[in-house]
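go over this:
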Amino acid sequence: MPIKIEQDLSRFRQIVRGRIKKDVQKFLTSTELIGKKGKDLVSIPLPHIEIPHFTFGGKDQRGVGQGDGSPGDGASGAEGGDGRAGNAAGDHLLEVELRFDELAEIIGEALELPRIEPKGRAEQLVERRRYSSIAVAGPESLRHFKRTYRQALRRQLISGQYDPDHPIIIPIREDKRYRTYRDIQRPEHKAVICFMLDVSGSMGNEQKEVVRLETFWIDTWLRSQYKSVAIVYIIHDAVAREVDRETFFHTRESGGTIISSAYKLCLQIIRERFDPGEWNIYPFHFSDGDNWSGNDTAECLKLIESEFFPRVNLFCYGQVESEYGSGQFLRDLLEHFTGAEKLITSKIENKEAIPRSIRDFLGKGK
């Protein structure tokens, strides 16, 4: 029976994976379909996957198996609809919980994202505790039930105390076995993601919502590629400041835009906390392309070339279209850094462009 259940569960999870991959555009662009559950799970409502179930009714109900029936009678005795087409969604929604790494794998397959090749110098030896041995002494919380039972059974068989008609196994002190650990060193890679967001007056709620969705999936994918991930959130208008995640996604500010303020703060944080020899560094900047002056844009280009490129895996710039933004900064980047391998730019017209933009940023596997 357990084998049959495992087969059914495996088949169901394959159906779920197929549904997510088929509707990947919808999942990546809808905030209603994504909600974090605890630390490691994401909850996704999947439409049109119905779980078979019995419907019980009263004894006086008539239908299949109860008295006379007519062709077309429903098994549950429920009345049908009026026969006309409708445009409303049904109520058949199934909440499915997936691990973030499993969800990232599905999205990666759907978007055909290559696995990331971390920088070689960033490999660190991290000490991990592995319970892989058995000892004859230890705390009761680590007692190994199967090993203890087996040892007690062996002792009773050898001593002749075992009675097949009354198979009672009672471990004594000498039978008890305990799990024990050893510390091992394993190579690991670490990554830091620096999300920078323009919150000036020209960036409206719609543009910020696009950034929220895209950064969620970027974060999810990078976490599946690295064991240790740190995230830095920076918002800026004419002045930049580091904030927490909640503030990053919900700040409503106005004012002018000085992009270099965010770049300088990001570089300061990298110098103080994240040694490029130990960390894989990914700065992401999202803006509508407006900047205060050509002089500040020139300073930004200089910072990217002389300060970011030597330190980071990639420098990613996403330009979110806004009716108030000029989009000039993207044109300046493309003109100045023709063919630069460490610069990736993406134009994000709306939510529907998010899957393509994610492929732009993560499709090189760096």
Observations:
- The beta strands are 35-37, 41-47, 93-99, 123-135, 178-198, 228-236, 240-243, 279-287, 315-320, 343-348.
- The CA atoms of residues 17 and 106 lie 7 Å apart.
- The longest strand covers residues 178-198.
- The chain has ten helices and ten strands.
